[in-house]
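Complex 205.
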Amino acid sequence: MDQAAMYKLSYGLFVLTSSFGGKESGCIINTAGQVTVEPNRISIAVSKSNFTHDLVRDSGKFNLSVLSQDADFEIFRHFGFQSGRTVDKFADYAHCQRSPSGLYYITKGTNAYISAKVEQSIDLGTHTLFIAAVEDMQVLAETPSATYEYYHASIKPQPEQQKTGGKTAWRCVICGYIYEGEELPADFICPWCKHPASDFEKTTI
Ligand code: FE
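Predicted structure with fe (iii) ion bound:
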């Protein structure tokens, strides 16, 4: 069995936003898709480690902003590499508006938003699969959507190549962070994106 086959699946990238009990937050997800047409439903799978997961679970509603190819790395840093449990991501965030549902959607680096109301939740252990009815949506721009592959090739900072060196290092495949050293500790957590050692690949710098 070749695990790399999983990398051949294509994914979009989205900012998932929700609100509950006076708290607002958002996170980056790559698992959203339309599941039925009549009625129009979408599904999202969200890690329980995300604060936004709890807001969706408790409020039963969310907005999905579709990231486009003009999204910069700062959007990924802002919504992906810090937790809404400790940071209010909307405290001074200028690039958002409220949809008719009252939730924020993202207006910069996005080409559409979809507002949805949760109909079913399926506990998948690490994640919850939410199936939701679409209640409102708007196209914001004609810029092509950013895929996960596009993010890795064109948005994520590329490690600088050093001509002298040849030192062993480990690169986070999610965000590009470089750990210098022969061995990466098994319990290492990426300081930028908080992904585990299993998301690092060996490289040379
Ligand atoms: Fe990382």
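The longest strand covers residues 110-123.
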